[in-house]
Please model this.
Amino acid sequence: MRFPRRRAHLTGPDADTPVIRLSGVAMTYPGPPPVPALRPTDLTIGRGEYVTVVGPSGSGKSTFLNVVGLLDRPTAGTYLLDGIDVAGLREADRTALRGRRIGFVFQSFNLLPHRSALENVNLAQLYNDTPRSLRTAAAEEALAQVGLAHRIDALPTRLSGGERQRVAMARALVTRPSLLLCDEPTGNLDTATAESVLTLLDDLHRQGLTILLITHDPNVAVRGTRTVAIRDGHLTELAATHA
Ligand SMILES: Nc1ncnc2c1ncn2[C@@H]1O[C@H](COP(=O)(O)OP(=O)(O)OP(=O)(O)O)[C@@H](O)[C@H]1O
Model:
């Protein structure tokens, strides 16, 4: 499966439209006392970039992820996702946009334990435009893409940690999202398994996928082609790592 530079469906952006453009985006939790968890931030992520966000505990990584992932509304600034100003959207439209354009991968996998790998991946297609008759094939293709073609009928409890994370990645990819948003994707994995997941992310990036990965681990952060650091809610661009 390749990730088209130009998205086919309805209001899909062209290749030059950044996937993410944040202008002065900030988040202050109301409190009391108010907590300025994300200071006014400008950040543009172009199509096909692999950006990592690194920062210590409490620096604002989850706050940033929740805003970018359309899980929380920022308290200031403008956020364009695929050129769409998300501030004006009603909640149902934000949910639909999130379901179509963003694939999430979490540290804890978040799979339904009593559903097979295939069913877990299939459930992610509630909001996409794939005709119902083609959804199973799309889910099988996504599982094959992460190297799990032979395990599609397995329950998560019968899979290793690395395999579970691959199912989660297939679930994130099946909608062909504009952005893969990863939150500590290797946090629950041993070193060798973590490396295989990071290698898969490298492959997906080479295929054109835009990736935003949040981590506290500098060794993971260097896998991105661009790294930003977050500290006390301030985002700063670090030097480019590898191409
Ligand atoms: N709902 C909330 N209400 C008030 N303050 C919050 C809320 N959520 C987070 N904070 C505060 O905002 C700051 C940033 O928190 P955040 O969870 O974004 O950090 P983090 O980098 O993700 O931390 P960790 O790596 O430990 O998960 C912290 O000072 C935290 O205490």
